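Exercise 7.
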Amino acid sequence: MRDNTADYRELFLNDVQMMDMRAPVEFTKGAFPNATSLPLMTDVERQKVGTCYKQKGQQAAIELGHQLVGGKVKAARVEAWSAFARANPNGYLYCFRGGLRSQIVQQWLKEAGIDYPRVIGGYKAMRTFLIETLDSAVAECDFVVVGGMTGTGKTEVIAALDHSVDLEGHANHRGSSFGKRATGQPAQIDFENRLAIDLLKRRARGQQQFVLEDESRLIGTCSLPLSLHQGMQQYPMVWLEDSVEGRVERILKDYVIDLAAEFIGEHGEESGFSLFAERMLQSMDNIQKRLGGERHARLRAILQQGLEEQARSGAVDTHRGWIEGLLREYYDPMYVYQRESKAARIEFAGEQSAVLDYLRQRAPRSKP
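Solution. The predicted structure, written as tokens, is:
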């Protein structure tokens, strides 16, 4: 039998497949990208055992667990674990702390003729390792932030660089009031885990410099880890520039044409466009207070007209009206203030090709 492991670094660097014995509710709150939920107990069973443990102690709880997961129920679960073990001979199993649940599953698998190792310390130890991985990257590596007005193509710069970290990609959100995608966002813990694993792999390849897009603390519902967010208030910055016309066209493509196609791809032609239109109007309504009543009503009317025209003929020309209005009247005044407040950190400014050249040639700065 392979030994049980506490080498969390190797597990994540090599995308080792793992089966998670925790209850479904625990898995949903946070898990690892290379883990499959194959719980020892359902949520209801776990709740019953937990109540028994509190009232009658460990032995009574173990006995109840064996009653609840016995006979055909046990056989079905052992078969599911066995199938995973056969499909992933180099994998591991774990529970919350690497204790009773994973040991029981390990024993039952052994009785079925399969020796399968577990992760010592379980989910909790691996999660702690990833938090420390992220914090150490923030403390030790060289980061530079790409800022710029809305629609200048900051995400395009991130996508074009080998040493960038795509925070919005990990959060599955475009990071603005209109940034929700057709598919949902990961749980907060899943977002943090993915980000930490990304940094771990890059550092293992020798990367010590990382380019990030300038973000607020929240990317949709995902919150940046505190150490990274605090660092981003201090990191040197490169400022991306583009004309208003170029920015309008980029936003039209990303937030209207591509997003509509994304919704239609997920939900079909009729339902997809209807959900897309609903999402766009809701996004406009979400910033009503910041826009003010008159401006909100005016821009929302143009958006409504644009959606109706898009639904009728596929034409998107009308959308340019509300996009340009939002840029000139809402986003740009905010970003002018932000640029002034960040001026001391800006080490380079230019259009996309110049910014990409600069970031590709920029020598890493050593930490003080």
